[in-house]
Write a structure and sequence with these properties.
Radius of gyration of chain A: 30 Å
Order of helices and strands of chain B: HEHHEEHHHHHHHHHHHHEEHEEHEEE
Number of domains of chain B: 3
Shape of chain B: elongated
CATH topology of one domain in chain A: Rossmann fold
Number of strands of chain A: 13
Number of helices of chain A: 12
Largest sheet of chain B: 5 strands, mixed
CATH architecture of one domain in chain A: 3-Layer(aba) Sandwich
Strand content of chain B: 5-15%
Largest sheet of chain A: 6 strands, mixed
Low-confidence stretches of chain A: 96-111, 383-393
Structural class of chain A: alpha/beta
Oligomer: heterodimer
Distance between the termini of chain A: 89 Å
Number of strands of chain B: 10
Low-confidence stretches of chain B: none
Amino acid sequence: MLPVLTLSHNDWSLHRKGPIDLARHNAKVKEAIRGDLPAIVGEEAIITADGDRVVKIPIRSLELPRFRFGQNDQDQVGQGSGGSRPGDPIGQTPGANAPGQGAGAGELPGLDYYEAELTVDEIAALVFEDLGLPFLQPKEKQQLKSEVPRFTEVRRAGPMSNLDKRHTIMENLRRNARAGRPRFGGIANDDLRFRAWEPTVVEENNAVIIAMRDVSGSMGEFQKYITRSFYFWMVRFLRTTYTNVEIVFITHHTEAKEVDEESFFHLGESGGTRVSSAYQLALEIIEQRFNPSFWNVYAFHFSDGDNWGVVDNQRCVELVKTILTHANAFGYGEIQQHSRGSPTTLMSAFEPLSDPHFVRVKIGAKEEVYPALRTFFGPAAGQPASPAALRVS
Amino acid sequence: MLVQEVGELEASLPAILDAAQRCGLDPFPVHFELVPAAIMHEFGAYGLPARFSHWTYGRAYQQIKTFYDYGLSKIYELVINANPAYAFLVDSNSVLQNKVVVAHVLGHVDFFKHNAYFEHTNRQMVEGASVNAQRIRRYEYVHGSREVEEFLDAVLSIQEHVDDVSRVKPRPPEPQGRRQPAKETAYDDLLYLAAERPPEPVVERAKVPVEPERDLLLFIAEHARGLETWQRDLMHIVRAEQLYFRPQMKTKIMNEGWAAFWHARIMRELELTSHEYVEFSRMHASVLSPSRRQINPYFVGMKMFEDIQARFGMERAMEVREVDSDVSFMRNYLTEELVEELDLYLYRRQGDQWVVVDKDWEHVRDTLVSGLTNFGQPYIAVEDSDFQDNGELLLQHIFEGQELDTPYAQRTLEQVFRLWGRPVCLATQRESMPTVLRFDGQAHTVQERA
């Protein structure tokens, strides 16, 4: 048989195999990142980045393993364009300034894991996936309302980007049918339909968060970093999830004061510590500005727990109890890099306080910021922790 | 491509085929399909259209697409070894570019038809892969796509470990299980009324496989106890497709070189306008451009065939394309003069730079050959399927001087465990000591053997 050559040119526009498997790959990337969130949330590079900046996250589990030789810098064959001589440099090695961070990456050469590229916003979306304010209650008066655009109507005119394909096709079918041609085709301007929106008012429960931060001299670099990291994610979470949340920032050493967001994150002061001053100020602010019958009130405090003596610790306990009569929840985080187990920290003073609305965490490492976020805002927060706690409440 | 351009290309096909046949090429019939670049990227990622789905192909697709989007690389054609052969052309390329590609494809198809390593390949693989994909989709429907995906992950981790020589060399028959002691009956005591009962014979364990088995996929599919039928079928599917691609991996330099050699020749036979000739030369040069850190198979292969033709004549070149693979091709026909002319060298990492270290032609040749042997991958063979009398799988790394990447080997063992269902061991060499890596489903152990 003589060989014959034939040629065809078909329509491939509906062929989508590659994109579908790519979508599965990307879903696996997100799965892997979800498993690695504690390390990612603790990463300083992410906290300092803008929302749309792309960060690279090494993911090892996305490399199918196989039996292969170790990397022992064997000779390889290359090809020059003529006249190359031993000693000629032919390029920079990729490992020169690249090898990634990330757990366990050290045992492998720089290029052997898949590097996912995500924006900080995408990571944040994964972090916040199932977080919410605990004990959120409807309050008497819906002070703040937000407008949300909702597509509710179909019109004959509008921007092409809002083209309603489904209705357009139906109009086309209808028009063709009227003309005795029961099929789809030949879309005319008359067939075009566009989606139109109108603003819908959504009522939200008002909430105020009082963020308190210890800036005293005993707070080391690590403690400051953890505080900043936690509040960074918390503020970001609140702002992206709720449209109407107010945040009050308070810093304290022996004196407490209300500050703006900028100084809250960047203030570095020194001096002794009197935590009760912050709690006192928080209480005053709640009483003066945020009537609990209108507001869901939350208070958070991060400190190294190194307070000014037992007397003030006792005052703190009393103040927390008072604040809890107004607030939905009170969260306290104590940061100690090397657990000294000092019996005089604030945490130990809070020991007898058993109220499910009072949530406390200890943070000893960067990776524990994410679990702390989940303790305060995760799906389990706001649920009675145990039958015992249930009886107390 | 405009409709009239498609017509122009179609009209030129007989002339191209005629030129090829006049020069002595003998390809299968070829069906060409014009596709958009995105579809070409996809076929490039999967190797076969309508092949089964897996996320690793999705990633390969993304990488090819990204390279194309940034202008770093471009796929001109994809040709499938089948009879009739299928070839895909990019519909956004010019008529002349696609004519060159048609000529190039004829070189490939002639190679598929005549090279000995392709003799046993499945020439209906396009349909075969599509049927396989449908079967796997059915398994996903029945057993859940997550379940199928995880099993495929494990199978694909060892997909390179198939053995295409097994077709040629029959396996020794397998001993049937262990030797059983004779069955006891109620009258046994009568046999030994006078004499002492003889001691039970020592049961010699019959080792399976009798000889080390390099086809891990086949051996595990046939001998793992806990696998379900669909799982064994998945392994056979992956293996069949791997065996289909093997000859292409084995003859990459020859095949590309042969196709480049022929597209250059055929284009010279066609009457090109000077404008077309410039366009052809530019494309030819870009396909053949050398790369500093790896060899360009088109360039090296083409130069070698040109050299063979010049020194021994066309008949010899035809013979080489029939009987050789890359390893023997390089070993037999890469000469000192060629290494010099092609400016091949050995390079190595020095500090944070790659540096040319050696230009000795024999060193270059031997390094190339050793990199091509078994595709640069370690030889692993099944040594025992009842290791330590415990149903454990013992794999043997056939050591040839280069040690394994231990973390990778351990992670691969985890995947093998998933297939085998019992502890798996790998005997290898680590830091110059014979070592057994073992994974029991929970933990890894590393044991040095004296």
